[in-house]
Design a protein that fits this description.
The chain starts with a strand and ends in an 18-residue tail after the last helix. By secondary structure, the protein is an alpha/beta fold. The longest helix is centred in the C-terminal third of the chain and has 29 residues, at about 235-265. The strands form two sheets. A five-stranded mixed β-sheet has the order 3-2-1-4-5, with helices on both faces. A five-stranded mixed β-sheet has the order 8-7-6-9-10, sandwiched between helices. About 40% of the residues lie in helices and about 20% in strands. The structure holds 5'-O-[(R)-(carboxyoxy)(hydroxy)phosphoryl]adenosine (KG4) and zinc ion (ZN). 5'-O-[(R)-(carboxyoxy)(hydroxy)phosphoryl]adenosine binds near residues 144, 186, 276 and 304.
Length: about 325
């Protein structure tokens, strides 16, 4: 079946068309188009929700048209529409949700609403050359700009939340720390780049909640520690690199310890990573090297927000909802 996936939960406008045939196989991406308003957010040092939604209104239809064109398809050939209905920014979510509802009303297409966080995990079910095979039960780690969550996936559709951040998400902490270090938005990829020339041991930041008995996280204390350090320094380019390295190591250490602990407790047969922060090379490599079970990580283009992961999540958890019963839900959790 051909599924058109729409993603507009934050600042990206993503539309993708996938071809899915069997739940035993991964899905094939026919097109994956992303329109980003990142340059605007770089100038404001972060996302102003109203700005993001205004850009998405402009991008939505051209992105949809481009995705169809790239896949050499027309709307008449599409079997189903998948759309992110939460969590996210309300104005942004509404752009995608209302587009999906309109497609359903005008073209009689079924709509499958998708939880964005589950979408990130299902980026691991996209057919690629390098990716391994997810095996259930699996532990999922969703690390993005808005979320840091550990979930137990017993099988498709059977997901249990086991822990998450009590304050800042890992990506959010990187973005805020990036700002303290005068790096461009979003901080995550810039911290990763700066860390490459960082010297180990020059700074010493906490690993918050690394030893706690639960599966929760907290990153606001790390941000506060960097704030204090930056305030006591005349920040040099080398300091920025050294601090970036220690911040990256602190976040990666905590994420890995908690994820491996969850995998062991729940006897997981694989670990599935997802979300923007899983584009981080140190996290990818260290978790893969330390884990006793296979670690499946999407290629970097499918780590950050995209329509293909939403279409994939819809296929494996297929549940059509009448268009007039679908509402954007910015506070949606698992
Ligand atoms: O999943 P995503 O695209 O959007 C949300 O759902 O939030 O994640 C965006 C987050 C941002 O916080 C960004 O700084 C972080 O992912 N990120 C990274 C990297 N690339 C993106 N963090 C660390 N290393 C990276 N290479
Ligand atoms: Zn996301």
């Amino acid at each position: 079946m051909l599924i058109l996936g729409i993603e507009t939960s934050c600042d990206e406008t993503g539309v993708s068309i996938i071809n899915a045939s069997s739940r035993q196989e991964k899905v094939e991406v026919l097109s994956n188009v992303l329109s980003s308003s990142l340059p605007i957010h770089s100038t404001t040092g972060g996302i102003i929700p109203e700005n993001a939604a205004r850009e998405q209104l402009k991008y939505m239809i051209p992105t949809l048209e481009q995705a169809l064109k790239k896949a050499n398809l027309t709307l008449e050939k599409i079997d189903s529409v998948a759309v992110t209905y939460g969590p996210g920014l309300i104005g942004s979510l509404l752009v995608g949700v209302e587009t999906a509802k309109t497609l359903s009303f005008t073209k009689s297409l079924p709509v499958v609403p998708v939880n964005h966080l589950i979408g990130h995990v299902y980026a691991n079910f996209i057919k690629t050359e390098s990716n391994g095979e997810p095996i259930f039960p699996a532990i999922g780690l969703v690390v993005s700009g808005g979320h840091t969550d550990l979930i137990l996936i017993k099988e498709h559709g059977k997901i249990k939340w086991i822990g998450g951040t009590r304050d800042d998400a890992a990506g959010e902490a990187m973005d805020k720390i990036g700002r303290l270090l005068q790096l461009p938005y979003p901080g995550g990829p810039h911290i990763e780049k700066a860390a490459l020339s960082g010297r180990p041991g020059k700074f010493n930041f906490p690993r918050p909640m690394i030893g706690s008995a639960d599966f929760d996280f907290s990153f606001s204390g790390l941000k506060a520690a960097v704030y204090r350090e930056v305030n006591s320094l005349k920040l040099s380019p080398q300091d920025i690199s050294d601090i970036s390295l220690e911040v990256e190591e602190s976040i990666v250490d905590v994420l890995i310890v908690k994820t491996l602990k969850a995998a062991s407790k729940y006897d997981a047969k694989s670990i599935l990573l997802g979300g923007g922060v899983s584009a981080n090379q140190k996290l990818r490599e260290t978790l893969t090297n330390k884990s006793p079970v296979p670690v499946i990580i999407p290629p970097k283009i499918f780590c950050t927000d995209n329509g293909a992961m939403i279409a994939a999540a819809a296929f494996y958890n297929y549940k059509e909802i009448p268009w007039n019963k679908i509402d954007a839900n910015p506070g949606l959790h698992f």
